[in-house]
Queue: 3 jobs
Job 1
Amino acid sequence: MILTEILAPGAVKVLPKASSKKRLFCDLAGIARDVHGIDYDTAFSALQERETLGTTGVGHGVALPHARLPDLDEVHGVFVRLEHPLDFDAMDRKPVDIVFALFAPEGAGVAHLKALALVSRTLRDPGLCAKLRANADPAILFTVLTEMQASEAA
């Protein structure tokens, strides 16, 4: 699995302000609806419900909210960089400014886990995160996220 299989260029955004986790989940659900045709209410509710199980803020300013949804055939991703970091109750108690949300089919056990592992590995790279934080153009952010895998595959 590679990021370009789950992340479309249009699903990469820079958000000027997310005032709360709930507002961020609204934005993520809206992008998922607009780009992937995912039902907004279902996506929003599923993100909220998953977050009640424990924070998806993994540390170092990164959050990986994810949810399983009915009526999906494949895993879809949404990436946002927040211009102003958001308190996310992350494991290291640091605010979050890089968010990669995953939406997976309800029955996609292995595919969901592979996608989550791929995104986690990718965003564990401090150099890559520094590049993401230094850019505000969604097209550049998409390239930064996907170029490493593209060069490895070549």
Job 2
Amino acid sequence: MAAILAFAGSNSSTSINFRLVKLTVSMVQGHDVQVLNMTGYPFPMFSEDDEKQKGYSNSLVELKDEIAKSNGLILSVNEHNGNPSAYFKNVLDWLSRIDIKFLEGTKVLLMSTSGGKRGAMGSLGVVEKMLPRFGAEIVATFSLPSFYDNFSDEEILDKALKEEHQKALQTFLDSLN
């Protein structure tokens, strides 16, 4: 049984990426899954001055420790103007200051969604290239376009997208064995 940590790269209380994460983890069986709602993780914008004066917050250290205890990570990233949100980039900046290889040995299912037809593919592509710098192994990706047309709380509505999502999840789970 693997330990899996799951969260969205968004701190929005109405995050559609968090909804995709919750659907995904509902399909996982036989593993210890912990879901984090990032609205409970407020971090100041990274600056070297804050780092020197205040150090690292308890929330940041706890997040880093939860990641370190995990064998796998289910992550869905949102997109702002074709890139990851400032919030998610900021989280990565802080975590990498504690330990540049904070994702060492962590297998990742990387997902994204948006209301648009590209499904936050710009953000997914940026994060897919970024996470290996911190030691992550991206084992599968999935992007859900047109969230409001293709998603309900119980399932992905489009048959082909649903199958693609299930295949990505299975590839991720197989990598943990």
Job 3
Amino acid sequence: MSRVLGLVAASCGGVETRLCAELAGPAAERGWRLAVTLTPTAERWLAASGELDRLGELTDLEVRSRSRLPGEPRPHPDPEVFLFAPATAGSVAKLALGIADNQALTVLGDALGDPAVTIVVGYQVRDTRSGHPAWRGHLDALVSAGVRTHRLDWAGPWTDVLDLLP
């Protein structure tokens, strides 16, 4: 039986062309069963590019971006490992501050701090972001909670972040 990877993605540049090819596909090839949750904007971008259907073909679980209604069954098992990639600067800040204003941040926020859960965040931000006075604090807050962080290269492969998974 394969291990479940909670793959969470935000609307970073390239998500519509690189998520399947460089993260979801290679993770599935490594034996992960994908439980995919997207931010609403990432879902729109993937749907517009046709990649949402391709992403759905990589998993037997529903690709979700919305919360379920009361009484609906949970569509994903509880993963022991999450990969949040690509993550935007805004989504990193929200996760660090405990703001769960969409399903993607809710599922991560519920797992953050649980010692039985591994969370890896692969963020893609502009070089100038490191100069923002709050940025270092957001990364430090996540690291102090046990999150493994990795900056995704704009031009290089995103697959490097998969090496941080247990």
